[in-house]
């Protein structure tokens, strides 16, 4: 992140003409394997996440759009910064020119800002969906605007790194660093500002929102009135979110916090005591905290795959050529059936996923169709035909009538 600006000058703080941080070949080989693993897993995993969301219409939800933005930010960080950062930190020689030096210092803060505030946007969206379920959800246009604002603010925050980045020839080596007007003071203050804006503040916001959502989902009082239909909808919402988005996103946030905490502490400590930069072992410390921070870009696809059935089905489909991956009929249904989602313009909910399916023995096309029955207690509303039927959440009689009809109704759906 911002700190990569001084990825340049942190490991090289004690250099004059000779490089005192030369590493043994075996240690350099180990670090190369470690960083290569991050690069491969992060880029391949996040590219698959992007494909899953863009290639399947049912995956284009508000939350998934923010996950798409998160995946793009992580991919750019891994592809354009992680390995270059490692090469420079390990060799102490900048091989990539002035233009890439500016980009190299600019990109990390931009990408991390976009990543963390995509998580914040998801947390706020989850909060509104659970705590205020009858209020309209974000539209696609508003979602795109929020994502645009996130990247705009990220560019503004990272611009000083790009502006002040430069290269300098020292002996046989070239250094890439940020030349601040008031070198030590400006550098340390900028690190403080970045740590607050891209670490402390968003984590506090997410801790608060997820705590409120968790208390509501796991036995707290249900906000709002006590009408029967409202309780049915909240109970259904609990079941939908309890083991899916809420838990998954909490793990994503905790993983991010753990991975980036040592990195921020490193720059705070070396900013307060700059003599530490002259200690030879500081290079190994830096490579360790840098690897942990960069590795945060590769965990999210693994988390999605493990905790979300749709992403898991998408990964199976993307990797179906592998001999150990089996794409089942259920996995294909997961990708092509639609889940429940709130109408973005009103408090009317529509059914878009069938919870249970059984073959219809009386249907001569049962190999292509199934009969699907969804109990009301597992849904926000019910669907009585292939086109979703919407019901007003404020109508108790309408809800009860639909329930009675639905108990004897089966819905055909394409496999």
From TrEMBL:
<dbReference type="InterPro" id="IPR000276">
    <property type="entry name" value="GPCR_Rhodpsn"/>
</dbReference>
<feature type="transmembrane region" description="Helical">
    <location>
        <begin position="103"/>
        <end position="124"/>
    </location>
</feature>
<feature type="transmembrane region" description="Helical">
    <location>
        <begin position="145"/>
        <end position="166"/>
    </location>
</feature>
<dbReference type="GO" id="GO:0004995">
    <property type="term" value="F:tachykinin receptor activity"/>
</dbReference>
<dbReference type="GO" id="GO:0005886">
    <property type="term" value="C:plasma membrane"/>
</dbReference>
<dbReference type="InterPro" id="IPR001681">
    <property type="entry name" value="Neurokn_rcpt"/>
</dbReference>
<keyword id="KW-0675">Receptor</keyword>
<feature type="transmembrane region" description="Helical">
    <location>
        <begin position="25"/>
        <end position="54"/>
    </location>
</feature>
<feature type="transmembrane region" description="Helical">
    <location>
        <begin position="66"/>
        <end position="91"/>
    </location>
</feature>
<comment type="similarity">
    <text>Belongs to the G-protein coupled receptor 1 family.</text>
</comment>
<keyword id="KW-0449">Lipoprotein</keyword>
<keyword id="KW-1133">Transmembrane helix</keyword>
<feature type="transmembrane region" description="Helical">
    <location>
        <begin position="247"/>
        <end position="265"/>
    </location>
</feature>
<feature type="domain" description="G-protein coupled receptors family 1 profile">
    <location>
        <begin position="45"/>
        <end position="304"/>
    </location>
</feature>
<keyword id="KW-0472">Membrane</keyword>
<keyword id="KW-0297">G-protein coupled receptor</keyword>
<dbReference type="InterPro" id="IPR001013">
    <property type="entry name" value="NK3_rcpt"/>
</dbReference>
<protein>
    <recommendedName>
        <fullName>Neuromedin-K receptor</fullName>
    </recommendedName>
</protein>
<keyword id="KW-1003">Cell membrane</keyword>
<dbReference type="InterPro" id="IPR017452">
    <property type="entry name" value="GPCR_Rhodpsn_7TM"/>
</dbReference>
<keyword id="KW-0325">Glycoprotein</keyword>
<keyword id="KW-0564">Palmitate</keyword>
<feature type="disulfide bond">
    <location>
        <begin position="101"/>
        <end position="176"/>
    </location>
</feature>
<keyword id="KW-0807">Transducer</keyword>
<feature type="transmembrane region" description="Helical">
    <location>
        <begin position="188"/>
        <end position="213"/>
    </location>
</feature>
<feature type="transmembrane region" description="Helical">
    <location>
        <begin position="285"/>
        <end position="307"/>
    </location>
</feature>
<dbReference type="Pfam" id="PF00001">
    <property type="entry name" value="7tm_1"/>
</dbReference>
<keyword id="KW-1015">Disulfide bond</keyword>
<keyword id="KW-0812">Transmembrane</keyword>
<dbReference type="GO" id="GO:0097225">
    <property type="term" value="C:sperm midpiece"/>
</dbReference>
<dbReference type="GO" id="GO:1902093">
    <property type="term" value="P:positive regulation of flagellated sperm motility"/>
</dbReference>
């Amino acid at each position: 992140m911002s700190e990569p600006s001084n990825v340049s000058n942190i490991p090289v703080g004690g250099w004059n003409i000779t490089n005192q941080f030369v590493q043994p070949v075996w240690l350099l080989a180990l670090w190369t394997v470690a960083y290569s693993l991050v690069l491969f897993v992060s880029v391949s995993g996040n590219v698959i996440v992007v494909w899953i969301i863009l290639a399947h219409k049912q995956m284009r939800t508000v939350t998934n759009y923010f996950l798409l933005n998160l995946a793009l930010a992580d991919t750019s960080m891994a592809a354009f910064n992680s390995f270059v950062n490692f090469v420079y930190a390990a060799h102490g020689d900048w091989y990539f020119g002035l233009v890439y030096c500016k980009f190299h210092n600019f990109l990390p803060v931009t990408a991390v800002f976009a990543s963390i505030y995509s998580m914040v946007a998801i947390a706020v969206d989850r909060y509104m969906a659970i705590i205020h379920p009858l209020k309209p959800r974000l539209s696609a246009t508003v979602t795109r605007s929020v994502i645009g604002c996130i990247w705009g603010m990220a560019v503004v925050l990272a611009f000083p790194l790009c502006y002040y980045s430069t290269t300098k020839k020292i002996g046989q080596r070239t250094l890439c660093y940020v030349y601040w007007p008031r070198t030590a003071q400006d550098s340390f203050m900028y690190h403080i500002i970045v740590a607050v804006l891209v670490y402390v503040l968003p984590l506090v916001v997410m801790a608060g929102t997820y705590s409120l959502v968790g208390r509501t989902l796991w036995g707290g009082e249900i906000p709002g009135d006590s009408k029967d239909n409202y309780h049915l909808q909240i109970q259904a919402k609990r079941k939908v979110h309890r083991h899916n988005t809420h838990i998954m996103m909490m793990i994503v946030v905790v993983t991010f916090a753990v991975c980036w905490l040592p990195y921020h502490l490193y720059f705070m400590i070396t900013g307060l005591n700059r003599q530490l930069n002259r200690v030879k072992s500081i290079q190994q410390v830096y490579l360790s905290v840098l690897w942990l921070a960069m590795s945060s870009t590769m965990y999210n696809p693994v988390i999605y795959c493990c905790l979300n059935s749709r992403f898991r089905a998408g990964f199976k489909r993307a990797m179906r050529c592998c001999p150990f991956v089996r794409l089942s009929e259920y996995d294909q249904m997961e990708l092509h059936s639609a889940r429940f989602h709130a109408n973005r313009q009103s408090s009317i909910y529509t059914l878009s996923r069938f919870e249970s399916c059984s073959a219809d023995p009386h249907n001569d096309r049962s190999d292509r169709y199934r009969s699907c029955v969804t109990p009301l207690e597992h849904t926000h509303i019910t669907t009585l035909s292939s086109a979703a039927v919407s019901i007003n959440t404020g109508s108790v009689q309408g809800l009860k009538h639909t329930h009675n009809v639905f108990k004897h109704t089966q819905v055909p759906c394409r496999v």
